[in-house]
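Work Package 3 (structural annotation) set out to generate three-dimensional models for the target panel prioritized at the project kickoff. During this period the team completed the workflow that converts sequence records into discrete structure tokens, so that structures can be stored uniformly alongside our sequence database. As a representative example, we reproduce one entry of 425 residues exactly as it appears in the project archive.
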Amino acid sequence: MKVSKLASLVIVAGVCLGMLAGCGGGESSSSSSAKNKKEIVFWNPFTGADSENIKKMINEYNDTNPEYKVKNVAMKEIDMYKKIPTVVSSGKNIPDLNIVHAERIQQYKDSDMLITYDDVLGDYSDIKGENYVEAAWDMGELDGERYGLPLDIHSWGTYYNKELVKKYCPTALDDNIVTFDEIKEAGKKAKADKIAAIGVTWVKPNFLSLLKQNGGQLSENGVDPTLDTPASKDSIGIWRDLYESGITNKDGEDATQIFVSGKSIFLPEGIWAQNTVNEAEFDWGFTNSPQVSDDLSKAVNWSSSHQFVMFKNDERTDEKTQGIMEFIDWLRTNSLEWAKAGQNPASLDILENEEYQKMPQSLYINDPKERETLTIFEYKYNGYVSEYLETNGFDTVFGKKSIKDFTSGMEKEVKEKIAKDKTKK
């Protein structure tokens, strides 16, 4: 049955009149409700083992009965980063508070997606640089304005089997640094016993740590990549040499499980991998990432930082922003639970906690000289470099791709992606 336009309008009008909020006022009423709701919608990428830790922290904060309670919204990292530009551009369902990796702040800022903390920090005098790990704090400031506040600084290092170190390289860790030369020497001795010297693990931190040690950089001017260089070739080449020497795991083998089973001396991994390493039935230790030199002043430990940011959101009131700051300020002195997740809180208040002092990752924060080794790569297009390393790194280490093709391909791909990037200035 056909319905005339006039009849349709009459039906719609009747329905609207029958609704409490009214058709025209429905969206406005909902928007107003969201704006006035005393709740902080907090997006974060914590869906792994650390998800329970962040939930516990949020629950503990909410139990203090703040005016604005925090609602935890965790989602997979890749999904969260895809969703952020969509909701910000639409102006709808934008989170009140978000955690992002520090390396992404520059692009968000250049895309005019963020607001600064500058107008509200004056009321929170303890949220300042001297109370945080410098490398993490510095990443939140761009062009003299603060866009990020750090939750942590998570870093790469080396787990080691104490028994195997004693057997194959007893003096290697006297200085708390294992060099690649020491790894090779240990590998020669361990090879006959079918023990690997070191595991081939996540290429990105392994490569970037060496890139800086070898005097390289991702970009000389902050935009154009400088990746097809001798330093890049040397950095991936060191890992290729270890593999070709037959002292690492083979392609397709799980380096972590080999280590946990007692068949590998060293395992480069993140401080957050402790729960997995704890499955081992032997005594293990944790130290700096493998280094070219045994000089701590030249050491580089790849790091990143989870940072609190606020995307532009017309629904976020001044009162809610104050509530956000109360939450961040509370975390500054209540971050032990995050350390239990294997993380290093960025707040130096954690140094007052005896339980933290006994945690392996405290090595990086207790010693000011170790703090200086923590390196967050600030390149605006770090994400493009990461994507290339994830796709091509292992193939190069395991001999499926030439080192020459690896470095030239990396520079070419990153340049092409930058050319398409709308945020390029």
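The longest strand covers residues 154-161.
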